[in-house]
Amino acid sequence: MKKIETVGIIGLGALGTLYAHLFTEALGPEHVLILADKARTERYRSQELCYNGHPCSFHYEDAAQRKEPVDLLLFAVKFGGLPAAIETCRHLVGPETTLLSVLNGIASEPMLGQAFGPEKVVWCVAQKMSAKKEGNQVTVDPVGELALGVPAGQDDTHLRRLRGFFDVIRFPYVLHPDIRTHMWSKLLCNTGCNQATMVFQCGYGGVQVPGKARDAMLGAMREVVAVANAEGVALSEADIDGWLSIIDHFPADGEPSMRQDGKAHRKSEVELFSGTIRRLAQQHNIPVPVNEWFYQTIQNMESQY
């Protein structure tokens, strides 16, 4: 396969901006395309986006006007926007395009595989970063890393190609031997931490200290462990402890994406978190009262927007 030379990114929230910045710094703006439909592209161009206080020099491009496939296509939209993003970029996926998703949850990789072929999709968990977007200001500290892998039995050609590219540009990543389990582990983190900060209207500091927010976060995480075990995924209390060691060292005033959504009165990714756990728990007859409470509380909050 040819080396990766062009990168397309669709979605310019906190994570999309983070990766647009890293790729642009490494490759130059002419090789990194921020893709969207015409109207959104014009909005991007009219706003000066700043990364850690510095103006971004991104190359915005109307996806419909781009004719050649990109070598690497990274999806960084909200889950609800993924079907539209797939259609916006469908013509930019060629025979050798590598696909990467930094969406939360456990659903985006199968969706991309169904749309474009599973062999093109490198499974990924965006982890250990704290990224916040308020208006046109994106603040990131730390940058974190991507955990990469492919499911057992899948051809790893695209994974090897992506690793080679990341090694050359010194992009932060780790290779995970069991990416499916690791994705479930990140779901455990999001289901607890993201939902707790949204419901209790706090930053990381609110779940770093003893209290109702931390108790609810831990309760939701333990319910994810129970459901994961029923699904054949070997999570345990050790996974909870591992994520706590990361969460407890984030900046106290940092905020997960769901808290940012709540403050901005945007629809959140609750369906990816407690929504997923509720549906699977019902299949296995497992009680998940904390996630039921999170789900209903967030639904009520969003009905007021």
Structural class: alpha/beta
Total number of beta strands: 12
Shape: globular
Largest sheet: 8 strands, mixed
- On the 0 to 100 scale, the average pLDDT is 96
Q: What oligomeric assembly is this protein in?
A: single chain
Low-confidence stretches are none
Order of helices and strands: EHEHEEEEHEHEEEEHEHHHHHHH
Give the proportion of residues in helices. 40-55%
Q: What percentage of the residues does DSSP assign to strands (E)?
A: 15-25%
Q: Radius of gyration, Cα only, in angstroms?
A: 19 Å
Going across the major beta sheet, what is the strand order? 5-2-1-6-7-8-11-12
Q: Please give the count of helices.
A: 12
End-to-end C-alpha gap: 48 Å
Outline the fold blueprint:
Blueprint: E1 7-10, H1 14-27, E2 32-36, H2 38-46, E3 50-51, E4 54-55, E5 59-62, E6 72-75, H3 82-89, E7 98-101, H4 108-116, E8 121-127, E9 131-134, E10 137-140, E11 145-149, H5 157-169, E12 173-175, H6 179-199, H7 204-207, H8 212-230, H9 237-247, H10 257-263, H11 274-284, H12 289-303
Helix pairs in contact: 6-8, 6-9, 6-10, 6-12, 8-11, 8-12, 11-12
Account of the 3D structure:
The protein has 305 residues and is of the alpha/beta class. Strands 5-2-1-6-7-8-11-12 form an 8-stranded mixed beta sheet, with helices on both faces. The chain has a 4-stranded mixed beta sheet with strand order 4-3-10-9, with helices on one face. Helix 4 links the parallel strand 7 and strand 8. The N and C termini lie far apart (48 Å).
The gist of it:
The protein is of the alpha/beta class and about 300 residues long. The chain has helices at about 15-25, 40-45, 80-90, 110-115, 155-170, 180-200, 205, 210-230, 235-245, 255-265, 275-285, 290-305, and strands spanning about 5-10, 30-35, 50, 55, 60, 70-75, 100, 120-125, 130-135, 135-140, 145-150, 175.
